[in-house]
Specification:
single chain; about 550 residues; alpha/beta; 19 helices
Length: about 550
């Protein structure tokens, strides 16, 4: 039998602000789901509309703060039923399923005085239909995440991947853990390709010492569905790894990375000439016009002299650092251009270029053998081996991280759009997204991220951008994200940004964000039937983003 909660009162025309008089103080809690009978039109059958209680008001006239000390002298007659209690709630409607199965918000106001009932597992499971073949289990509905009545929440993979994802929350709320759960399911259960730009080396810990590192604390997981899926994910990751997929780690040409992964990593050997000339001012900031001129001529001469790629960046170095007579005698230059080349300008440009090369340590030279092959990295179309590609950028400068991220992202977009030889559809993950696509600040990586945001869907390239400071993200990037996972956010600037950037969030949603616990998320967007509060489930691979237990690390001094 359905649990009676209360009745609708007042104006029922605003689906985001419907008032309910609650039966008693134990009738409902904030965040709980309710159902209300409704008939949208005369020729449609009666159905239930799902709603969520977004606020509860409880007051008592006998305990009014204005009564002050006089309250202690107040006496109630024995047996009197007067309590002075008033209980009201506010409901935000999720919608109802029409005859075609679509979720719709009622356009006709609900009936004032209509009874409101609680919902059970069967109703919610039926309302939130999903296809397990094209969806991943992100976690369970808050309030229905324990015991026998667990309600799982699934995300539509096709819409999640190609229509972009933003994960936004303050530090320590579980952003990276949530993304980790998503990507390991995309790879192991959906056989997908995911590329993670790992700025802190968190994701790389799943392949520490060149071996898969699994979460071994499976027995403590209460949800049987989760236990089974984690075992399946771990088995599939082993199989994919043996087949040449699974986890593939790419790193700069630095010995420390080789030690971290026991030489199971691949060195990045990116082709510098694949950068657009327009991006050079971002890579080498502060160049004067004469310096830009000599660098432009040197690159064009380098490309002409070594006409068959790949081109060794050391050759470009030598051209800039050497005698400019070789450049001045180049037949492609006019006499005026040749005279304008300045040795001092070339020396400054060479110095700045050397700094970039030495910081990134990721460019192709003949000594490394072959350049990085984007098709080997993400897989060609028809190559049915799922893989998690980790680009470990830990310890590099911000400029180096942006250059590497921009080059790899550009190569993926180029290959995905090549009609003669396409890559597999892939999902790019940008951690610390406010550094790669900042608002109001030039950035080499922002240009390609904005291009993927606007054009990537056509070529099967999607992305997730993750940030603890949403207000510092470029709004053109976040506005293209059709799924938004928001966790705890307390900064008022970030909350205002969320409300301004996306129409997915109601005022009640924004008000909910500061009170979310670690691992709890509000999910909105196209990959989910309706906005839901979710307790994110457990990962199969170990997670490297936890804060250390400093008291254990410090130990005890016994001197």
């Amino acid at each position: 039998m359905d649990k009676y909660i209360g009745k609708l009162i007042g104006n029922t025309g605003n689906p985001n602000d419907i008032k309910i008089a609650l039966e008693d103080s134990f009738s409902a809690k904030r965040g709980e789901f309710v159902k209300i009978k409704h008939k949208e039109s005369m020729d449609e059958p009666e159905t239930y509309v799902l709603g969520r209680i977004i606020s509860i008001s409880r007051s008592n006239i006998l305990y009014n703060s204005n009564m002050g000390e006089g309250l202690s002298e107040l006496e109630i007659l024995p047996g009197a039923q007067v309590t002075g209690e008033t209980l009201f709630g506010t409901i935000e409607l999720v919608g109802y399923r029409d005859s075609s199965g679509q979720i719709k918000i009622p356009r006709r106001p609900l009936n004032p005085g209509e009874k409101v009932y609680g919902v059970d597992y069967e109703f919610l499971s039926g309302f939130y239909k999903f296809d397990e073949n094209t969806s991943i289990h992100i976690g369970n509905l808050i309030g229905y995440d324990k015991g026998e009545n667990i309600v799982p929440v699934y995300l539509d993979v096709n819409k999640l991947v190609t229509e972009h994802l933003a994960v936004l929350a303050m530090t320590g709320s579980g952003k990276s853990y949530t993304v980790g759960r998503i990507i390991e399911r995309l790879v192991a259960l959906m056989n997908g390709t995911v590329v993670v730009f790992d700025v802190h080396g968190e994701y790389g810990k799943a392949f520490a010492k060149g071996e898969l590192q699994f979460n071994e604390d499976i027995d403590s997981i209460e949800d049987a569905r989760d236990r089974e899926s984690i075992i399946k994910i771990q088995e599939m990751m082993r199989k994919l790894l043996n087949a040449g997929g699974g986890i593939k780690v790419y790193t700069p040409q630095i010995d420390a990375f080789d030690y971290k992964y026991m030489n199971k990593n691949k060195h990045l050997a990116l082709q510098f000439d694949r950068l657009d000339m327009d991006d050079l001012s971002s890579i080498l900031p502060g160049l004067t016009e004469p310096q830009e001129r000599v660098l432009d001529v040197a690159i064009r001469y380098w490309q002409a002299k070594y006409s068959n790629p790949p081109r060794d960046i050391q050759d470009l170095r030598e051209i800039l650092s050497g005698d400019l007579e070789e450049l001045r005698e180049w037949e492609e230059l006019s006499p005026a251009e040749a005279r304008a080349l300045n040795g001092r300008s070339a020396a400054v440009a060479a110095t700045k270029l050397n700094r970039v090369i030495n910081e990134a340590k990721s460019f192709y030279t003949r000594a490394i053998g072959e350049p990085s092959d984007i098709y080997d990295m993400v897989g060609e179309k028809g190559d049915n081996i799922g893989r998690l590609v980790i680009i470990d950028l830990q310890g590099l400068s911000d400029d180096a991280k942006q250059i590497i991220t921009a080059l790899i992202s550009s190569e993926i977009m180029r290959a995905a759009g090549d009609k003669r030889r396409q890559t597999r559809p892939c999902f790019l993950v940008y951690e610390e997204g406010h550094n790669f696509a900042p608002a109001g600040i030039p950035s080499i990586s922002k240009k390609i991220i904005k291009k993927i945001a606007s054009e990537g869907r056509k070529f099967g390239v999607g992305f997730s951008i993750i940030s603890q400071r949403p207000s510092k993200l470029d709004p053109d990037v976040t506005s293209q994200c059709n799924t938004i996972i928001t966790m705890r956010l307390k900064n008022p600037d970030d909350q205002r940004f969320m409300a301004k950037t996306s129409d997915m969030f109601s005022k009640a949603d924004i008000d909910e964000l500061p009170s979310l616990s670690t691992g709890e998320a509000l999910i909105n967007g196209r990959s989910i039937p309706a906005p839901l509060l979710v307790k994110v489930g457990t990962k199969a691979l170990i997670h490297g983003g936890e804060s250390p237990e400093v008291t254990n690390e410090w130990g005890v001094f016994n001197g």
